[in-house]
Amino acid sequence: MRAVCVDVPGGPENLLLRTVPRPQLKDGEILINVHAAALNRADLLQRRGLYPPPPGESDIIGLEVAGTVHTLGPGVMSPWRPDDKVMALLSGGGYAEYVAVPEQLVMPVPSNLTLCQAAAIPEAWLTAFQLLDFIAQVKEGEVVLVHAGASGVGTAAVQLIRLFGAVPIVTAGSAEKLKLAEEMGAAAGFNYKKDDFVQGVRDFTQGKGANVILDCVGGSHWEKNVSSLAMDGRWVLYGTMGGRTVDGDLLGKLLSKRGHLLTSLLRSRSLQYKADLVKAFSRTVLPHFSAQPASLRPVIDSTFNLEDVAEAHRHMEANRNLGKIVINLNKQI
Ligand SMILES: NC(=O)c1ccc[n+]([C@@H]2O[C@H](COP(=O)([O-])OP(=O)(O)OC[C@H]3O[C@@H](n4cnc5c(N)ncnc54)[C@H](OP(=O)(O)O)[C@@H]3O)[C@@H](O)[C@H]2O)c1
């Protein structure tokens, strides 16, 4: 099968399209014929050798795909049949024509979505759902500040916060990105490059602060995050795009807010945890993608062919995407 390989960690030019053997199915796995895969920020780190796959997982990049069921491995219990349209959360292996996935991480494609749209759901939406529901336990009426509001995870988070009856507010780096986040449901948006989002959050919440902050920025925002947090608020760190080190009175300021600092990573979680997450998401969120009218939608920025995967990585690395970047393998259904 064709797959994108990285022999030497480095820039996008090190992504090589090659022919490699198809994955062998283990007990309880399903082989998916991949029609589309989506990019995630973690893919850029993995390409540079900074985010290796968990032990035993494919070293091919790619955390989410959509396609059709090809073969069921030994011991598969779920009633999938060949050619069923599916999407899946992966620990790796997505940038390839076929991928083997534990059956618990396979979901049906919502009826009104294309496979390119569906590929943009698993990693981004399960991450947002996990952070909001399993980690922060967001409640109705709470104000949630989402950084990178036009990112793949951010556009999912804003829609989920509305679904949960809470109030999303965002930061982003351009007017265009803020506009997208507002179209997705954000009640307010702040350009962190130009404006003081602390003041924006204070004004919006009449001085109370945000109950929850979804933070994929880390270092450069830490002080503003503590200042923006409500008393007893939950600050959920899930990325460090703005640096990993902190210099200053973080603990004192957090303590004065009685703040909770929570962190999470999805990829390194156990299969059981991911299976529980997929089950909860499938029950409570997935139906909203195919409702009439649909109340949730994956936001697609652009679609690239597999041959142009390096260009897709450059696009993301330059922070140009609004929503998700999809790789189309151009297969007929
Ligand atoms: N913990 C987990 O399990 C998990 C899972 C999935 C994703 N993530 C994390 O979630 C984040 C979003 O991922 P994604 O794939 O959705 O990303 P994405 O679509 O590529 O969007 C990332 C956006 O973040 C903003 N950004 C980049 N550097 C920044 C900085 N230094 N300060 C502030 N904003 C910055 C940029 O938008 P602006 O133009 O608005 O600055 C950029 O377009 C990443 O940090 C990723 O690692 C974590």
Task: Tell me what the structure shows.
Strand 9, helix 5 and strand 10 form a beta-alpha-beta unit. This protein has 333 residues and is α/β, with parallel strands linked by helices. The chain starts with a strand and ends in a 5-residue tail after the last strand. The strands form 3 sheets. Strands 3, 4, 5, 6, 7, 14 and 15 form a 7-stranded mixed beta sheet that branches. Strands 10-9-8-11-12-13 form a 6-stranded parallel beta sheet, with helices on both faces. Helix content is 29%, strand content 25%. The site of NADP nicotinamide-adenine-dinucleotide phosphate (NAP) has 28 residues, from helix 1, helix 3 and helix 4.
Concise summary:
The protein has 333 residues and is α/β, with parallel strands linked by helices. The protein has helices at 41-47, 115-118, 122-135, 152-163, 175-184, 197-204, 222-228, 250-256, 271-284, 287-290, 309-317; strands spanning 2-5, 16-19, 29-38, 64-72, 85-89, 98-102, 106-108, 143-146, 167-172, 188-191, 210-215, 229-237, 260-263, 300-305, 324-328. It folds into two domains: 2-121 and 270-328, Quinone Oxidoreductase, Chain A, domain 1 (Alpha-Beta Complex), CATH 3.90.180; 125-263, Rossmann fold.
